[in-house]
Structure formats: C-alpha cells, structure tokens
Amino acid sequence: MANIVTIDSVTTYNNLRGVPTLHPLVTVIDLSKAQPMPAQTFNFGLYAIYLKELNCGELKYGRSNYDYQEGTLVFIAPGQVMAVQPKVTTFEPKGWALMFHPDFIKGTSLGRHIANYSFFSYDVNEALHLSEKERQLVLDCFSKIELELQQNIDKHSKTLIASNIELFLNYCTRFYDRQFITRDNAHKGILEKFESLLNNYFASELPSNEGLPSVAYCAAALHLSANYFGDLIKKETGKTAQDYIQSKVIDVAKERIFNLNQSISEVAYDLGFKYPQHFTRLFKQKVGMSPQDYRSMN
C-alpha cells in the first residue's frame, strides 16, 4: 500500500498547495493560483470541500473512484482517506477549496449541527452536481468567507466565518434535495431495486445462513453508501431504510405463519432472527398481536 500522508492542520495543507495561511484553522483557496496536489494518498484531519471546475484526474475514496465532473462539489470529513491520481504529470488545476479544522467549529451552531450534514460521509458516485445558478451561489459563499479571512482576526471572526460556512452547507442541503428529485442517474428506480433485493433475499437461504439483511448490506448491494441510501429511501417512502426492511420482514412472516407445519420459532429462524423472542417482539410491535395470536385469529 502507498504511504499515506496525514493532513492534520490548515498550515500543512496550505504549504502543500503553496499558498499563505491567513487563519490557522480555516482556508479558502483559488486552485488556479495554487500548486497541484501530488499523486498521493491523504488522510484528512480537516473538513474539506472542493468545487471542481476541471476534471484533471481521478479521486479515490477508499478503494473506489469518486465520480466527479466539472461543476461538482466533493466533500471530505476528518478521518477519511482520499487518493489523488492526475491524468497527466502536469496540469493547471481549476476550482476552489474550503478547509476548516474541526476545532474551529467547537462551541458554534455549526459545531452542534455538523453531524446533520450527512453528505460529508457519502461514498463514491455521490458528489453534488451543481447547476450554473447553484455554482454562482457557491462561489459567492466562498468569496464571503475569503473576504472575512483577509480581515484582521478579532473577537467576531469565528462567529462570522462559522456562520458563513453554515450558510454554505445549508445551501448544499437544498441542492442535494434537488438532486434526489431531478438527477437522472443510476439511482432512478432505487425503490424498485430495493424491493427486488429484499424479495430475492427472503426467497433464498440467506436469512437462515446470514441473518436479517442490514441497511449496510442493502446499500452495498445497490452500490450506495448507507447514509446516501438511507436518505434516498426516506425521500421516496417517508420511512427509514430500517423500517422498510422490518415492514418487509413482517409481510413475509404473515404469509409463513400460515404454514402449520412450522412452529413460530422455526419461522423466526428461517427469517433470520437469532432468537425467536426478538421476532415475537417485533411482530407484536408492528401488528399489534403476537405471531401465535395472528395464526389463531386467521
């Protein structure tokens, strides 16, 4: 495995890009005025957001390619690993980068709500694709943050910069909601694929061998990250992905309970429950009666 370079401070990153450090915990960089990133694997200790305006090579998140295009926002959270693989030895980078250290937002509104911006943990192929109007809003946000960084640091700096970053991320939340609805990509028909996946799973020997399907399992089978998959299902159904799986389990269980050749415990084991009492508890929670009562009533 290639050596992994840790970027744990804004100064380290600025030095790598050959730009001055205006604030020890935040930086905004016009990539056309910065040195290109070397072909290297990096472990980020910072929040990083890139507006890529030129497809200059491949980005790898973990072992997979990050499918970004021109006019795409790429989000990286502390602890994530990103590899840079330029298409050519030398190229002119274009776009913008915003970095901020997690310590910067401690004690701010942004710090309290940063976990709500789930796009920071999205896996590959899930970058935010911008319209031209959205791109202009992003550039305006970057410009305001950069302008504040150019001022002398005073007691207002942290509040103003953090507020502008939070405003920018709130715009991104709106843009992602739009992308869920309008983007014509491989996610189209995801609910149908999810339903088919569950049907095939419970029609096989997988439940008794592997247990109940998890959200992570379903997301991986559909080539999505768990967070992004969960957001898609929530948008489509109003239910969490876990609730949807449980509803499918109960639906299958209602049919199998009528097989009098199987005990309730055997039905539970065949559905993937490790303990029959867990099945009984879930069934009663969802249906309002125990599996045995449901069998007797019908």
Automatic annotation (TrEMBL):
Domain HTH araC/xylS-type stretches: 192-297
Alphabetical keyword list: DNA-binding, Transcription, Transcription regulation
Listed InterPro entries: Homeodomain-like_sf, HTH_AraC, Tscrpt_reg_AraC-type_HTH
Pfam families recorded: HTH_18
Record's keyword annotation contains Transcription regulation: yes
Alphabetized PANTHER family for the sequence: ARAC-FAMILY TRANSCRIPTIONAL REGULATOR, TRANSCRIPTIONAL REGULATORY PROTEIN
Protein name, as recorded: Helix-turn-helix domain-containing protein
